[in-house]
Design brief:
Layout: E1 11-18, H1 25-36, E2 38-45, H2 73-86, E3 94-98, E4 116-121, H3 124-135, E5 140-145, H4 153-162, H5 173-182, H6 184-188
Parallel strand pairs: 1-2, 1-4, 2-3, 4-5
Length: 189
Amino acid sequence: MTSSIPPNCQFDKGCVHGRFQPFHLEHLEYVVEAKRRCRFLWIGITQYDLEDLENAEPTESHRLELSSNPMTYIERVRCISSALSEAGVAKSEFGFTPFPIDSPSKLPQFISSDVHCFTTICEPWNQRKIERLRAAGYMVTVLWERSEKRYSGSEIRRLIAEGNSGWRSMIPRAVEHVIDELKLGSRLQ
């Protein structure tokens, strides 16, 4: 199976990263745009060890709260994989890896420095992540810079916890099905 998303193959291997709690439409836009620029895309999952969150960026303490991290690494892989398949990206063109952005010296254990990193900027934390990646020896391309996020994982989690179906319009359909199967609303309450 070949991808229906034609790659503008600037790079052989690329990487995106995020917590993806949960994976929403803006995440999908980011990942698909990065995939267009490389033959194979690694999807780095940050905060992958939910029992070891003490290394998170101090100014981003909300990322440490269990309510901000309701989905396991494997559950996020399932959501993202389902969304990308639904979007027409062949499973042979992407893979997953833990991505310890809070401990950049550990990144080479998971992703080779010859893998080109793609990111976006919509808050100060994004700029600090770019600085960390470059300091660790990675090439980084900023896909776009926006003054604000269109979708917020915090807002989506709040709506799910409240039983408000408004979150469904903010995420890919495939992710909606996984969230329902996982009964994430019960977990967030």
